[in-house]
Design a protein that fits this description.
elongated; 195 residues; Porin; eight-stranded antiparallel beta barrel; single chain; 8 strands; mainly beta
Length: 195
């Protein structure tokens, strides 16, 4: 139910504000994620994943606008060697793969046509995850993720290229432990305006 609500909300937001905007563009984008989880049960290193999706740009003026997006995003993590001390009954899984449907809603601030600074929240809905982290099949990860993003984007005609830093604000672990799993890392992308 949450997934449908967030998707409808994002579409309604874009359609409502488009009529008031000075410029409206829709495009596609794809890139790489370099993410890690801050907790002693995971290795303190960034792992490579992918992102792919669509975006809309709604400009209220030459310098201010919003950019909602709908992305499929893969994050990969690697557990630490002493995970058994943190998570009892773990299977000593080395690699953890999480796939999210992410909905960033970013404020665009453009000091020039070439450069745009972006900041805003990102809502993530867990689509599927590694089920091998625990012996009993218990779900190890929460169904949602909430992050704040900040970064910059280059606008080269209809082509966009950018980098953002994501800081997870909620615990993505779904295990009743004294630990808190929070994700953070980089989102790198290239996009193309379709119209």
């Amino acid at each position: 139910m949450k997934q449908k609500f967030l998707t409808v909300l994002a579409v309604a937001l874009v359609m409502t504000t488009a009529s008031f905007a000075q410029g409206f563009h829709v495009g596609i984008k794809g890139g790489a994620n370099l993410m890690k989880i801050d907790d002693k049960s995971f290795k303190d290193e960034f792992k490579f994943g992918y992102n792919l999706g669509a975006f809309a740009t709604v400009n209220f003026s030459k310098k201010v606008g919003i950019q909602p997006e709908l992305l499929w995003s893969q994050s990969n993590y690697q557990t630490a060697t002493d995970i058994d001390q943190v998570i009892p009954n773990s299977q000593n899984s080395k690699d953890v793969k999480l796939n999210y449907l992410q909905i960033p809603v970013l404020l665009n601030l453009s000091p020039s046509k070439l450069l745009t600074f972006q900041v805003g929240p990102q809502f993530g809905i867990l689509i599927n995850d590694s089920k091998t982290l625990l012996n009993n099949g218990q779900e190890a990860f929460a169904k949602g993720d909430f992050s704040m993003l900040g970064g910059a984007q280059l606008n080269l005609g209809g082509i966009k290229a950018g980098a953002r830093y994501a800081i997870g604000l909620n615990d993505i672990g779904d295990i009743s432990q004294q630990t808190s799993w929070k994700s953070r890392g980089w989102q790198l992308y290239v996009g193309l305006n379709l119209f």
